[in-house]
Automatic annotation (TrEMBL):
Its cofactor is Zn(2+). This is Protease HtpX. The lineage of its organism: Bacteria, Pseudomonadati, Pseudomonadota, Gammaproteobacteria, Pseudomonadales. Keywords: Cell membrane, Hydrolase, Membrane, Metal-binding, Metalloprotease, Protease, Stress response, Transmembrane, Transmembrane helix, Zinc. Zn(2+) binds at residues 142, 146, 219. It comes from Pseudomonas oryzihabitans. The active site is at 143.
Amino acid sequence: MMRILLFLATNLAVLIVASITLKVLGVDRYTGQNYGSLLVFCAVFGFAGSLISLFISKWMAKMSTRTEVISQPRTRHEQWLLQTVEELAREAGIKTPEVGIFPAYEANAFATGWNRNDALVAVSQGLLERFSPDEVRAVLAHEIGHVANGDMVTLALIQGVVNTFVMFFARIFGNFVDKAIFKNEEGHGIAYFVTTIIAELVLGILASIIVMWFSRKREFRADEAGARLAGPNAMIGALQRLRAEQGIPVQMPDTLNAFGINGSLKNGLAGLLMSHPPLEDRIEALRRYGQR
C-alpha cells in the first residue's frame, strides 16, 4: 500500500483548515437553512481540498518517501530503469513519467501525479536489489497502468464528491445539535462549530471506506494493464514474489498505498480501510485474465 493515506491525510487536513477558517471568517452563516446553497458551498470547498491534494501529490510523495528522481543515470541499473519506464509508457500511450528510487528495504513501488502526462513512478531500493529484471518490469508496468488509467484523477473526483457530502451532513448535524439540543436561537453557537468539526472527522474516516473500495477495484485494473504490458506470467511472478516477502514490515506512508504495488487486506472492519485486495485474489484474477 503506498499512495493513498498521503492523499487522504492531505485532503482531510485541507478540509479541516478550510472549515476552521470559514468559521472564523463567519462564511458558514451565509448558508443558513438553505440546503441548496449549503450543498453548493460544500461542493466548492470539498472539491478544493481534493484538487489541492491531487496537484501537490507528486511533491508530497517525493518528500515523504525521500524519493530521488533520476535525471541523469549514474549506473547501468538506473539506465535500465529509465529505458524500461520509457518503453512501457510509450506502449501505454502516455508521456514518460519521472522515474525515482526511494531508500527502503521492503519491496514496493508507487505512481502518482496530477495527470497521466505529468506523473512520477518510483521503486524501492529493496525491490531493485532482490527482484529479477522481469519482475521489476512487471511492477513498473503495473504502476504505468495506474497512470494510463487516470487513477489519480478519478480518485480526486471521487474524493471531491465524498468531501462534499461529509461537509454537508456535518453541518446539518451541527445545526441540529446547536438548535435542538442546546436551544440556541441566534445564529450558530459554539455547539455548532465543535459538533461540525467532530462530525467532519468521524464522517471523513467512514467515507474513506468508499475511497478504499475504489482503490481495491482499480488495483485489479492496474494488474491487467501490467499483464498486457509485461505479460501475465511476469505480473503473476511479481505478485507471488511480493507475497513471499510480506513478512517484511512495510514502512511507506499509508497515504501512498493506493497506487503502490504492495499491500495486504485484513479481515473485518480493518479490511474495509485497506487500499489493496489480497495478493491471492489478484493472482487468481490474473490467471483468469491470462486464460481469456
